[in-house]
What we know:
Helices cover 38% and strands 23% of the residues. By secondary structure, it is an alpha/beta fold.
Amino acid sequence: xxxxxxxVFSLLSLSLLRSAADDATPPLRVAVVGLVHDHAFGFxxxxxxxxxxxxxxxxxxxxxxxxxxSRRFNLDPGLFYPSxxxxxxxxxxxxxxxxxxxxxxxxxxQTCAAHGVDVMVEKPMAANxxxxxxxxxxxxxxxxxxxxxxxxSWYPGNQxxxxxxxxxxxxxxxxxxxxxxxxQGPQExxxxxxxxxxxxxxxxxxGGALNDFGCYGADLATWLMDGxxxxxxxAVTRHIKPDIYxxxxxxxxxxxxxxxxxxxLEPSWNWPFNVKDLQIFGQKGYVFVPEPDDLRVRIxxxxxxxxxxxxxxxxxxxxxxxxxxxxxxxxxxIKPAGLASLDVNMVVMEILDAAQKSARTGRSxxx
Length: 367
């Protein structure tokens, strides 16, 4: 009898294991397009942390970059393809992670749209407003999903601040947002020559520090303001280091005016160190995010109210990082929303476009 029970138990266990294996979601098949963006250096180690994602191809023709990445990350030579069309012909790729110049985002997205493949691009979404409209048209026409990746999207502090300010309304209506973003300068911090060649080009990047770091604050402000466009945009740009960056501005201040609030964005390649902080002031308090995993909160209109330091909970699930988010989007678990969404990033592009116009003319630009 015991042998019979053990046999039945073993058969049931085997059946359950097979059922679980059958129900398991196969790895998401992801390809990397372009290696000229230095953010790709952080993407390959992230890939190795995600068993649910499989790298199936890399599109790159620069042999120096191919050799550099192959050595650094021990990549199989068979992963490399000369073009997106060659990649699509040889693989059943489900999503593309893009590390080209910003100007090339449009071409990559349009090609992926023609093949029905979802795409993630690094911020900002496009180099100019014309390209942004072309991207939006391609995405909507094809029905693919587009994710715009910002490092600041995966800061526990920013996500917790959103809950406190937007969802829980702890500081009342927003009155002022301040975002400081940037570093000492891309050349000063040691960006690769391949990265610098387009990052400091007014066409390939759409500008200098204004586009490179102004998009962070514009993205956060638009998210916090429920996708609302500012009434007007006023910007001042400066060329503090023309000897290093002769073609583009390296410092900017952008003022966004809303009906009852204001956002001040300060993108720069002249900070003394890396800066990506956020300050949100409301009717009855403030929430500061000085570091990715740190919050400083003060609630109450009285002088006696005290500031409290809070450590936000770590991000989990699809909000853990960009790969978790991309996988959830491709599998249909979520739609791109908020910071990563097309709708928010179209407003971001309108803000950047207006800021460029304002800096050129010295006048406020109405949206």
